[in-house]
What does this fold into?
Amino acid sequence: MELSNREYAVGAADDFMLQIGRVVNAGEVELAIFRTSDGAFYAVENHSPHPKGGPLAEGIVSGYYLYDPLHDWKIDLRTGEVQAPDRGQAVVHPVVVEDGVVKVSLPAAVARL
Amino acid sequence: MTANREKLVLIGNGMAGVGTIEQILKLGGAYDITIIGSEPHPNYNRIMLSYVLEGSKTIEDIILNDRQWYEDNNITLHTGTTVIRIDEQTRQVITDNGQAVHYDKVIIATGSNSFILPVPGSLKDGVVGFRDIADCDAMLAAAKQYRTAAVIGGGLLGLEAAKGLVNLGMDVTVVHLLEDLMERQLDRTASSMLQAELARQGVKFAMGKQTVELTGEKRVTGLRFSDGSELPAEFVVMAVGIKPNVQLAKDSGIEVNRGIVVNDYLQTSMANVYSVGECTEHRGTCYGLVAPLFEQGMVLAKHLSGVQTPGYEGSVVATKLKISGVDVFSAGEFTETAEHTVISAKDEWKRTYKKILLKNNIIVGAVLFGDVTEAASLQKLVKQGTEMTDEIYGEVMGTGCCGGGGAKKGLSVEAMADEEIVCGCNGVTKKAIVDAVTENGFTTVDEIKACTGATRSCGGCKPVVEQILQFVLGDSFQQSAKQGICSCTPLSRDEIVAEITAKGLKTTKEVMHVLDWKQSEGCSKCRPAVNYYLGMIYPDTHEDEKESRFVNERMSANIQKDGTYTVVPRMYGGVTTPEDLKRIADVSLKYDVKVVKVTGGQRLDLIGVKKEDVPKVWEELDMPSGYAYAKSLRTVKTCVGSQFCRFGTQDSMGMGAMLERKYERLDMPAKFKMAVNGCPRNCAESCTKDIGIVGNDGGWEVFIGGNGGIKPRIADAFCKVRTDEELVEVCSAVMQYYRETGNYLERTSEWVERMGLEHIQNVILGSDDNRKELAARIDFALAQVSDPWKKMLDDNSTRTALFEQTRV
Ligand SMILES: Cc1cc2nc3c(=O)[nH]c(=O)nc-3n(C[C@H](O)[C@H](O)[C@H](O)COP(=O)(O)OP(=O)(O)OC[C@H]3O[C@@H](n4cnc5c(N)ncnc54)[C@H](O)[C@@H]3O)c2cc1C
Ligand code: SF4
Ligand code: FES
It folds into this structure.
């Protein structure tokens, strides 16, 4: 299996408002990037795991949780896991901040998708 | 998966069968499971099809177990596959596509089919039953294309179908053979109250009519009745009953009566073959509701998992109609005979009715209409065959005064068996709830809902869940069960507002920190609420928190299901100009707007604007925001009034535009709608608005608390005024009082009922000073508002952060 991940610089840390999601297209993947109130960054594919789908970027962020804007599902930003009683998983990708630049790494396969 | 596990095959992927499998999984039953179902869908909540039809849920919302669930539990699933025979000799289940699946045990859970009247024409196009997703889809499609519908059958299903079709905009007549609706659950009194209420909601009735033929060529055009009369209908729903689906059992040589005959352990006449659900006949009864099916499933699951259990002994059924604004309930026996002692109370003013039937002083049945708060306790009393006592009488008939109700209710939950189903919709037992409380330390209904699913569907079981909580928690319940505005806090709205003022709290963060929120940054319920309360309390200094706003308000545009947005420019009083129309047309063309739609509030929706384009659309429209997304004044609907109408006595267009200009943009607890009419003919429909204004010769009449939405309510007459100034002052005072005392998301229709019309009249009309102060406070708040579109266009960084899509 090919393990190489591809890293995308998605913007300067200061471009992201606290608790307000922002949409970034990285390769073919549409990401919603969130900055929680403690300054941490999370990257989630901008697609709700709810069967009806829809975007995630405009949800309300509380702590590490995101409330899906269309269906109000509660999603853990760290794992993508949907909280009970709903079930499902949003796709999350690792983020690092280096020298004030926010970088998301996507598996090469996803990046090419 | 191990090879030597026994093979269990479930036929029928519906509620009873899958419910049984869920129980088996919980009990750790060691089977290799295969499920075969005729429908192309995974397991869904059939009960909620009524909500799908009504429009409050989608098919996706009602899926109970998605395909992943089957995979996660190693269950082999064949959808769109029908079993045609069980071969006892070879121990195989044979499907219509020629597969043969080996079994050690089989559960038949094939449910029922809609009963289609055997009259000429019943197979024509445009005739459906109401049973599954396919039927529901057919109804949704028909409503788009046709106008008149007939629903044959005035039972639970028929009425829910009829109300759903009315909601979809059809002209619907319910045709019923008898003179009373739901005659199998209700007595004559309750039934006529029900009919009156549904008629009020727009359903028509043809009672005492026997359908003898459906007319039309290929497609149905109407019904003919036995008395020779006819009813035109372009679409017909048959909801006259269900027929246990026993074909497969019959063809396999299993004993069948009306349903598949089983004993107390759900065993059929064929070895290793069981049957649960609507297709089953137990001690001569076939059930058509879910609660009994879950009870059967529970016994069967234990039996198949090798857990000791007493056999199934039959169920007492209770009914609740799922139509908003129509509360009916019945349990056990309901028509009185000479043997019964009847306790009843009918209140024609409040439109409520309550009846309890006793046999030898044992409570054997009950009917409620209009107010069903006692439903849960009555259902239990009937189920347990409780003897009537003074205490119970006091409790259920509401004349008891000594407040001991709680403890006694606790006693009756105590007597409830662990395995008894509390939430029929989701098959949750008393034990599951008790465990949730004792093992996870849960103390609120919300937490129990999140963990077990109880109360999630129709909500009918909530009172019992509360009683169980109370029973398990004992004294500690009092404090912990206090329901706050959401599960983050036990504080009520009034307490939060009082604390904010008393402690001078300034931001949501501060509020949540100081008031000890359980989830430190709140949730999607309390964050927007607290942000609103802060803005209401400090209109001049509170800095609105975009991150606490629901998406529509954050973006100042309505998000649609595909992630595009709808932009709605203001049209004061519903009036526009040719110049503005031209600009709207130009911008719509340029940005490829999908649909331009006239709204119910007399404006134009520009639907389907791409997110990145939204700021540009605003900029080029250069019109004020119509706030179609906001919890604030939406529109002031007007008629043409004295400017043009030959009846008009007042200038409704002028007044409407003025009021809309005055109150636009200010945050309110919920959306707010107004209407102004030039005369009592009321062409702009004031009676369904938060504030409705009707002109007359001597001045204006003001109505408040109307609503045309999901809980319709006709506005109450509030007062009459002579001058325009008085009118504005009264409107200001009402709106400000609502702003100051309304719960977040509470519409005025609910607010008026909670506060009491008379109380609001006293506050606003009883004291000139009060009214003037309220009006002054709203004016102060109004002085602080500004157009969000203008603001966003001037604020580069916010606009970029919210709307722009970066590509890397
Ligand atoms: C619109 C509507 C509203 C309702 N509202 C309520 C309510 O408010 N309260 C309440 O208690 N009940 C309500 N009910 C009744 C409730 O939904 C049923 O009692 C319950 O779903 C029956 O469960 P079941 O598993 O026995 O049958 P079903 O849920 O009907 O499942 C049977 C399944 O078996 C499949 N099947 C049939 N034959 C075969 C075969 N040979 N091979 C493979 N698969 C087969 C069918 O396609 C079906 O999917 C409502 C029903 C409807 C239709
Ligand atoms: S409400 Fe009266 S004034 Fe207004 S349009 Fe109707 S008839 Fe004319
Ligand atoms: S009984 Fe319907 S939600 Fe519990």
